[in-house]
Amino acid sequence: MSGHTILLETPLLVALNIAPNRKKRLEDAGFHTVxxxxxxxxxxxxxxxxxxxxxxxxxxxxxxxxxVVRGVPTLRYYGGKKSRLAVSIExxxxxxxxxxxxxxxxxxxxLLPGTPLLLYGLYDRRMQHITVRETTFSPDQSHKxxxxxxxxxxxxxxxxxxxxxxxxxLDHPGLVVDEVIPxxxxxxxxxxxxxxxxxxxxxxxxxxxxxxGRRTLAYEELFLFQLELAMLRARRTKQPGLSHAIKxxxxxxxxxxxxxxxxxxxxxVLAEILSDMEKPEGMYRLLQGDVGSGKTVIAALALYAVxxxxxxxxxxxxxxxxxxxxVRSIRKLLPLSVxxxxxxxxxxxxxxxxxxxKLSQGAxxxxxxxxxxxxxxLTFRDLGLVVIDEQHRFGVEQRRMILNKGRQVDVLLMTATxxxxxxxxxxxxxxxxxxxxxxxxxxxxxxxxxxxxxRFASVLALIEQEIGKGRQAYIIAPLIEExxxxxLQNAIDLTERIIQLKPHWKVGLLHGRLSGNEKERVMHxxxxxxxxxxxxxxxxxxxxxxxxxxxxxIIDADRFGLATLHQLRGRVGRSGHQAYCVLVADPKNExxxxxxxxxxxxxxxxxxxxxxxxxRGPGDIFGIKQSGLxxxxxxxxTSLRDLKILEVAHKDxxxxxxxxxxxxxxxxxxxxxxxxxxLVKFVELKRAQYIVPD
Length: 694
Ligand code: ADP
Ligand code: MG
Prior knowledge:
Residues 276-436 form the Helicase ATP-binding domain. The protein is α/β, with parallel strands linked by helices. The protein contains 24 helices and 20 strands. Strand 5 (116-124) and strand 6 (129-137) form a beta hairpin. The protein is globular and about 90 Å long. The relative contact order is 0.10. Adenosine-5'-diphosphate (ADP) binds at residues 260, 262-263, 266, 289, 291-297, 440, 543, 545, 547, 570, 574.
């Protein structure tokens, strides 16, 4: 069965004769096609080639040692369950050294004299021993030839399984990897063939191979990404925009009835948005404003403006909690005559059907919702404006889906994170930016305290004091990375502990596993003041607005990034009352302590982002991780090297698009080497996705 040809899009099932029972596991891990597997790259590489240890320069180095067991192993236990196992090894280069394993007592039985081994670990030249990290018994000689790739664990699939599947693909004689980059560009940058680049990544001889493979694949990835953005942009500007006939008196009345006066920054930004909406060109604007600067009211007014012009509006948000809150608060700001629907993943099928009908008939003015809004079946009678809140939580895919919903709708993106200009260009194309650079008046700076877990009683005392004044508090439960189950348990434990210590408090618990109704109920009881203290996981992070809450306690604050801490702190200090943010943590390392200090001293989101960069060093020069921009399989935009590739790929994709893709026939006229088979498929696929409704 190995005579057949397999392509990147061939299903793995077909390519590798995978047993049906393993199929599900693969698919759950996101592996459907040959592409999915071949484009899963090693985390790192290990050099397993034998080397002469006497030639090492450093006193300590990570090395691979090929050898055989000499002598009898010794095993010692200490401190209860801990153990140290040691044995003498004779290396393939004829040296003698001691190999040491910690906490792997069971290996003793296998260390019989004469057993061939490949050890990988930290070698100490003075002590003449190696602390073993990885042990391979009777190793395969092929490891001697090049670097060994170490793969990640993907959705419960072990690195070993991944590697063996990849080996089967890479050894498959029928594997054909179609080119995707036009030949002229490949020549211009001296890129490898796509197949060669993939082999360099998976089976390099040395790190130089990896660098060459990466360069080719990073260009490929960024070129295709930019090509898609060019198509998105063309789709957006293809039709004439809508010029909305906004009724300014109606809007003015709503503004007059707001419970506050707009800040001058809000007035300016609103004017920019309204003037865009009235112009016949489509609006594509990013509204940037720090947490608490009052973006929601701007969104509400813009949405109302489109309703006065007789069209519909949609507000897309990343979480259900936020969607429900926006419905509540926008409901209060706008006249009752405006009908507003809520649509999330938890909306029942019946309600959903009814709402879809209303939207398509125009019986609903506004809809606020999560990803569920993007469903292709959802259509509007006359959509005029889409607002995307916390836009960094959404990608190109979502922007495309929303554009497909109407004619040339106006789009307003909102974000609290400042994004450098070069990157906005690369990720959004041309986009206008409005900045809310002023907080509403009367706000007092949130007082930020840092305390250690053993002083939790004083934290509770502060909350007690605030509850006494009629205020409320949030407590963010500790976060243990990557385990939703453990996080949940932590939140439950913490809630119980607090109820025991403070039986007279009314405590609510909000977490991601609750159903929509339950979330709404808990949130509502907090908003209405029934609950004094809300214990929650980071589901609360973005956007939540309960002005009466004045205390934000963050347990294990050192586990969170500064951007998240800033977002969390932004949940309080939303009224004229003095508010507090208490960071509970006892970090041992200097950088972590420094970061908490930054939080204590700074309150401006932009400055915090800057300081965070300084502390993290040059690893993430442009703050990409902060900004929540997309991550890629190969490219790492936190590095200068790949940002340069992004820049050229951006230019190349744009010019390729305007010369060969903007007119459908021009592409067909290109010589075959300029439209390689995989590029043709990519373009066809994207063209089908970017439908232009009439
Ligand atoms: P964000 O920009 O973080 O989304 P919100 O829109 O949630 O901020 O606004 C934060 C709080 O400030 C809300 O309670 C809102 O009602 C209030 N707010 C907004 N604008 C003003 C203003 N001009 N004056 C006073 N309070 C305001
Ligand atoms: Mg907000």
